[in-house]
Structure formats: C-alpha cells, structure tokens
Amino acid sequence: MLCPFRLAADRPAPLPPPPALGKISLRPPKAPPPVPAHLRALLGGARPAGAVLALGDRRVDALLPGGGVPLGQLHEVGAEGLAAETGALAAVFIACLLARLPAARPVFWIATRCDLYPPGLLDTGFDPARLVLVAARDDAETLAAMETALAEPAAVAVVGEVGRLDRVASRRLQLACLRHATTGFVLRRWPYGRKAAADGVPAREREPTAAVTRWRLAPALSAAEEAGARLTPATREPGPARWRVALTHARGGREGAWTLEFTEASDEAPHSLRVVAGLADHPAAPGGLRAAG
Amino acid sequence: MWLPDWPITRLHRAGFAPPAEKLATVETERGLRRLVDVSAAAAALGLRPGQALAGARAICPDLKLAEADPAGDAEALGRLALWCERYTPLAAPDPPDGLWLDITGCAHLWNGEEALAADLARRLEAGETPCRVAVAGTTGAAWALARRIGGDAAPVILAPGEEREAIAPLPVGLLRLPPAAVAALRRLGLRRIGELYRLPRADLAVRFGASIVLRLDQALGQVEEAIAWPRAAPPWLERLAFAEPIGTPEDLERALALLAERLCARLAVKLLGGRMFAARFFRTDGEVPHIAVATALPVHAPAYVAKLLGAKLETVDPGFGVDAVTLEAEAVAAVAPAQPGFDAPAAGGASATDGAPLAAVVDALANRLGPERLWRVAPRASHVPERAVERRPALDPAPMTRKAPAWERDPSQPRPIRLLRRPEPIEATAPVPDDPPVLFRWRGALHRVRAAAGPERIAAEWWRRAPRSERDGVAETDLVRDYYRVEDTEGARFWLFRAGQHGGGRTPQWYLHGLFA
After folding, report:
1. Looking at the partner chain, which of A118, A148, A238 has a beta carbon nearest the beta carbon of B368?
2. In sequence order, which residues have a C-beta less than 8 Å from that of residue A280 and are 6 or more positions away?
3. How far apart are CA A23 and CA B144, in angstroms?
4. What is the distance, to the nearest Å, from the Cα of residue A183 to the centroid of all Cα atoms in its chain?
5. Does residue A151 sit at the B interface (CB-CB below 8 Å)?
6. For residues A5 and A268, is the Cβ–Cβ distance under 8 A?
7. Fewer beta carbons below 10 Å: N end or C end of chain B?
8. Which residue among A88, A135, A232 places its CB closest to the CB of B418?
9. Distances in whole angstroms, Cα of residue B98 to Cα of each of B134, B142, B399
10. Inter-chain contact A233–B515, Cβ cutoff 8 Å?
11. What's the gap in Å between the CA of B310 and the closest CA on chain A?
C-alpha cells in the first residue's frame, strides 16, 4: 500500500525560480509535537483524528498532519500558469491519491468543463469504473453539487473543479466532508485565457481557506533521455512526468515543496509518486544510478 | 358485438398486410402446421381454419403467413374494450373475438340505441375493423344475434321482450354450448333454437347436460348472467383543497408534506413505490403551475419525496393564492421490502439499503441538474480516442459486478488525462515529413518543444458504415492521425497529432487533442 521511494541522484535540470515560500532548510523538519488529548477537544478538529494517506516518503509525510494526507477532510489543489487552466496536473495528482482509497463506494467528479479522459486515469491506478461524472453549469452549481454529494455517505471522495472558492464556501465544504468522513478535493481551475500570473500567487488564491491542506503544482521538466549531444527534439523522448509540488498550507503540519516524479507502474511500486529532489537544488545523495522501473 | 376474424383484423390494423390480401395465421399443433384464421380473400379460395399448411399452400401459393398470437390478440381486444369506454363505462372483452358493452342508461346520450350502435359500427368500420353489432336485453340473445350468418351488416336492435321470437330461427350452435352438445343436438335433428322451446327442460338437462338449460334461460332473460367488467386502476393521486387560498412557501411545503404522507401510505400498503411524482398547484386565477421530480429507484418514503419536491418549490409562483394542490405518482413500480438494520442511518427511502445513499445523491443531483448531466464511463472498443469512452447511467449496477468491461491499459500508448472535445488546430513547425514539431502556437502562446515521443498512428475505422463527416471538425479523409506526445521547455506535456500525410496535394494540419500531466 505504501509506495517505496528511492533517492534520485540525477543532475537536476535548471528550474524556474520557486514560488515565494520562505526559507527551506535542508534539515529534515521535525514533526510538530502531538496535541495532548485534553486539548484536542478544545481545538475542535484542528488536529485531524481520522485516517491518513501516507505518500510514502518521509520527507513529505513528515510535514503532513498525522503523517499523511488526512482523509475525511477538504483539500485544495491548485496549479500555476497554463496548468491552472488545463487542470491536468492537479487531476493526475488527485487521481494518484484517490487510487489508494477503498473502492467500495464511487467517486464523484463534478466539473464545468467535462474533458476528463478516463483512459488517462489508468496510469495512476485509479479505476475509471468508480467514477461518477457530473456536469455543472458554473462554479456556484459545482459547489452546490459537491455539497449535495457530501450530504449522504454515498461516495468515498468528491472532487470538484472550481475557479473561485471563498472562505465561506470552503468552510461549508469542510463541514460537509466531516459529516460523513468523505474526502473532498477542490481542484482550482480557471477558464482559458485568463492571464496567468508570472510569479507569485494571485490574489484570488491567497484567500484563507478552510481546507486542511493546500497544494500548488507546477510543471517541471522531465528527465528526458539524452543520447549523445543531439539537440533536436526528434530524438529525445520525454521521461516520466515531473512536477513541482508545494504544500502551501497544512493545518497541523508544515509547508514544504518538492519535485515529485510520477513513475511508471512496475512490479513493486505501481503508480508511485517519487520525490526527486527538494527545491534546494542539492542532490540528496551523490552519484548512484537510478534503478530501472 | 362480434368482430369476425379478429386476429386477421388485428394484423390488418397493425399494417402487416393490406386488407385485400390473402392472409392467414398459422400455428404449430403437434408438429403439424395448420391454419388458424384466414382472411376473407383466402377463404374465397377455399382455405379453411384447421387446414394443413401444405394443402393451403398448394391451393394458394402466394399466401401470406403470420404466426398465431393469442396473447397479443387478447391484449388488443382489451385495448379495444378500453376504447369502447366512450360509449359506456362497462365494456369488457369477450374472448376470443367479441366485446360486451352494457349500454343501460347510456343510450340517451346518443339519442337512442340505434344511433349508438350505428355510431359504433361506423367508427369501427372506418378503422378497418369489420364488426357486427347486436343490441338486446339479454347477453345470450345479443351474442347469438351478432354472430348469425346472413342478413345485412346493420346493427340489430331488439326491443325488450322480443328475444324469444328473435332467436328462435337461429341455429343451436349460437347458444354458446360445448361442441359435443351441439353435435348431439344436430344428430337428433334439432337445428334451430326454436325447436328447443317445446322440449321438456328436465329431459334436455339429462340428455345434453345442464349447460343447455342454463344457456337457454340466459338467452331468454330468466337467469342473470354476470360479466366481469374490467375497471381502470385508480390513479395514485392525492388532492388537498383549502378553504382560503394559500401562498406562502411554508404553507406550500406543509401541503406537499401532507400529500406526500398520504400518497406514500397508500403506496406502501401495496408495496409499491413511485418513480415520478408530479405536484400541481391550482391557482385562483386558473393557472396550474406544476413541478415534477424523478427518482432512480421507486420510493415510498414521504420525507424523501417531500424533500425532493421542496427543492423545486421555489420555481412555483403562487400568484394570488393556491386553491388546491394535487400530488400524483406517475410511474409506479414494485418495491422490495427492506428491513433496516439497527445501525443503518435513516436515509433515502430507496429499496436497496446498500445503494440507498447513492440513490439519494443521484436523485438529488439529477433533479437539480437534469438526468443527462450525471453519468458513469465505460470503455468502448475503438481506437479513435474520442470514441473510446461511452456514457452509462449513473446507477448502472454493471460496474459493481464482475461482468463489467474492463479498462485496458497499454503502457506503450499512454493517454492524456484531459481530452479536448474537439481537436484544436494549432500552427506547428515540423522539420521533415515524419518528425514531431519543434515549436507550435496554441491559444496565442508559443511553446517550444523539448522532447517528443511518437508517432502513434490512429486511422479511421473503415468498418463503420456511415463515417462521420465534418462533425468532429476534422474531415474524414484526415482521420489518419499521427499522434505525438510532446513536452515543451516549461515542462507541460501535450498530445498533438498531424492529420493527413505529406505529399497528398494538401498540407497536413496539426491539432492539439489532449493534455498530459
């Protein structure tokens, strides 16, 4: 169930400047101290007591509250630039997480633009037969449909693609998730043509949110196989997909950013997300070859 | 009323063959094919019911055949009886080819029995249904008179009290006796009903069975005969009228809740559930706004129905006030009784406890957005990417069973996570005929290609009889596509294809079809 991670030791490709997040140190961050039981009730759910979905790498899990992505709560996944308009990175990221949830109940995916392609979900290990797709007309309807889907213990997870999500709406969704312990994902996706912010986080996405974790994805160059010094793209194949993933908000956890690689399915590690390097641009271990598969 | 050759008539009405054609229905009896009913044209050639099919074919080689369908005939007869309710509320089919209509008290609406019978006969003749109508005071007399042979086809009306004289000249076979009794009577030389009057009744009963006396009495009106009249099922309708017109939303909600309780109580007693509920609000100014909800599974839980209706209540404008509200269950189906467990939360009201919350969510979303906006996906065997997925209803149980078609994954042919509904044309610069582009422009943004994989050729499905034309935005001749998976210098990955090939006289066009993660 956990995916084993291996340290990658390749030369990191030149990356665009990371989003402004503050200092990131190389020391493995200490996990926050556990909240004493008598204070947990007072804090009223600040510390999620439910199940968590560990991503498998201790560098990532150490920052997440409870050691993994908390289930039964609301999570927000956004993206930068063109990815914010296409919503492709966020969709695969969410599907990777959904693939590990129990398959007894379906997953609702509510969107305004229904261009989700189920065969593309197969690589993540998520069975498209569990999907129930809902087409809404606008953001307000998407949020209302998400609340309706969360009102009954019918689904194991509900994913909604919205553009604007204000604090009140996210609070309502979080409460709805808590009612029946259904995991909710909000995929921030903007209409095409919106001028993508070149740097920093646009004002609309800096609003406070009631989601437990907030992720921000950006595309990263993959380790394309380079044969010799040929530079024409005709001879280079794109390697496994890589993203820069930043955890910008985690209630009860800490912020962090990594480069994750989406590996192909193999025998021992199907559909895994692999941490390639922290954003400090230092390889974790010198030399070494990446094991195949 | 007698409908001669009802199966043939039914086939004519169904458009199977024109009336003048030689038509016969056949059935297989003990391995031998026999004719059951023949049309008038075929009978003129000498074909009879009960004749072997081989012999009939020898006489008439171009005979048109249809399988005998007694169940269909009976059902059609029942429908005709329902249509006859325009004359009288008591109309019953008399299998195999007759109809009973009790027009006591209805004749004055047509200014007399003659006019009623004439109107009935005229309408049926206009509908290509030959019929013989007879009106009499007793069922036996009417039955016999309708089936008499000879005479004109005009309806026969008997004044009350004339039955005895009217049926006396008719043959004994028209008394609804078993065939053995009829044969015995004929052997003795008793051919007319009138000859039976003179014989002592006790001897008749001993000799030919008690039924002959019964039938005689029924024909003469001395014994009552009961006919089972079919009655239409009562509609599942509940109505609530108010002394003063109401208009506030709370009052309307309360009225709907009350109606839902009553209607669901009636449904629950019969273990039925409704799948479509319609509420009508009768306003004081005569307008009748209505709302309708549909559920995926039959339900009879009043709170659930009231909640679904209440969600749509805001579209109703009460105007100056609502005088009456009706709630009708339009599609009613059986509901399997389910026993709730001790720990199951009270939810849904749908039949299966396992799927109850899911059915509730599907109902709520379908009623709010429309049932066509909710679907599951299933794979379709097609190479063309946009045809590889098909939609299924949201509550389809197939995904939960083992027999669901499995999604097959080909690791060498990865598919994008987002597929544009129509491939968008892009401007691309590609070096040589078969190489992926080095840069392309999509939606105004320029992308430089850093790495590319491909080509993967997907051609048109030549086995499709009617190829799609310009509907997809790509002409059919361009459906030879070479797909490339490209990555640009920022790390975004696209699925492009080139439609058509170089050297064909037209330059191939590049399109963007999907987006990878």
Report:
1. A148
2. A24, A26
3. 106
4. 13
5. yes
6. no
7. N
8. A88
9. 11, 11, 50
10. no
11. 15
Q: Are strands B272-283 and B322-334 parallel, antiparallel or unpaired?
A: antiparallel
Give the E-state strand segments of B60-203 in sequence order.
Answer: 64-67, 91-94, 98-101, 134-135, 156-157
Task: Tabulate helix, strand, coil % of chain A (nearest 5).
Answer: 25, 20, 55
Amino acid at A210: A
The token pair that represents A117 in the structure block: 């392609």
Backbone torsion region of residue B96, taken as left when φ is above 0, otherwise alpha when ψ lies between -120 and 50, otherwise beta: alpha
CA gap A211, B288 in Å, rounded: 46
Amino acid B337 reads P
User: pLDDT tens per residue, chain B (517 residues)?
Assistant: 777 777 777 776 766 666 666 666 666 667 778 877 777 777 788 878 778 888 888 887 877 777 878 888 888 888 888 888 888 888 888 877 788 888 888 888 888 888 888 888 888 888 777 778 888 878 777 888 877 776 666 777 777 777 778 778 888 878 888 888 888 888 888 888 888 888 888 888 888 778 888 888 877 777 777 777 777 677 889 999 999 999 899 999 999 999 999 999 998 888 888 888 999 999 999 889 999 998 888 888 898 899 889 888 988 888 889 999 999 998 888 887 766 666 544 443 333 345 678 888 888 898 888 888 999 888 888 888 888 888 888 876 544 455 556 788 777 888 899 999 888 989 888 877 778 888 899 988 899 888 888 788 888 777 765 555 544 544 444 468 889 999 888 888 999 998 877 666 667 888 999 998 8
Structure tokens at A134: 């809902």
- HSE-CB of B264 using CA atoms within 13 angstroms: 20
Residue carrying structure tokens 């271990």: A285
Q: Does B492 touch chain A (CB under 8 A)?
A: yes
Instruction: Tell me B195's DSSP state.
Output: H
Selection from B310, B351, B301, B330 nearest residue B238 by Cα:
B330
Q: Tell me the C-alpha distance between B191 and B185, whole Å.
A: 7
Interface test with B, best of A134, A138, A190 (most B CBs within 10 A): A134
A220 vs B: CB within 8 A: yes
| Ramachandran angles phi, psi of B384, nearest 5° | -65, 125
ipTM > 0.90 for the complex: no
Q: Which residues of B touch A144 (CB under 8 A)?
A: 368
SS3 content of chain B, % helix, strand, coil (to 5): 30, 30, 40
From residue B368, give the alpha-carbon distance in Å to each of A148, B91, B309. 10, 44, 11
Nearest to A179 by CA among A208, A209, A148: A148
Q: How far is CA B88 from CA A84, B96, B101, B327, B425, in A?
A: 71, 21, 7, 29, 69
pTM as predicted: 0.65
With tokens 């998407």, the residue in question is: A142
Contact (CB, 8 A) for B335 and B298: yes
Q: Which two tokens stand for residue B496?
A: 């492009």
A-chain residue closest to B515, CA distance? A88
Which tokens sit at A207? Answer: 């609003």
- Alpha-carbon span A120 to A128, nearest angstrom: 9
| Residue A207: HSE in the Cβ half-sphere, 13 Å Cα cutoff | 17
Please, is B79 exposed, middle or buried when counting C-beta atoms within 10 Å of its C-beta (0-12, 13-18, 19+)? exposed
Three-class SS state of B298 = strand
- Beta bridge pairs of residue B192: B171
**DSSP 8-class letter at B404:** S
Q: What is the identity of the amino acid at B319?
A: G
Compute the distance between CA of residue A76 and CA of residue A94 in angstroms, rounded to an integer: 10
Query: For residue A81, which of A243, A233, A255, A222 has the smallest C-alpha distance?
Result: A243
| H/E segment holding residue A87 | none
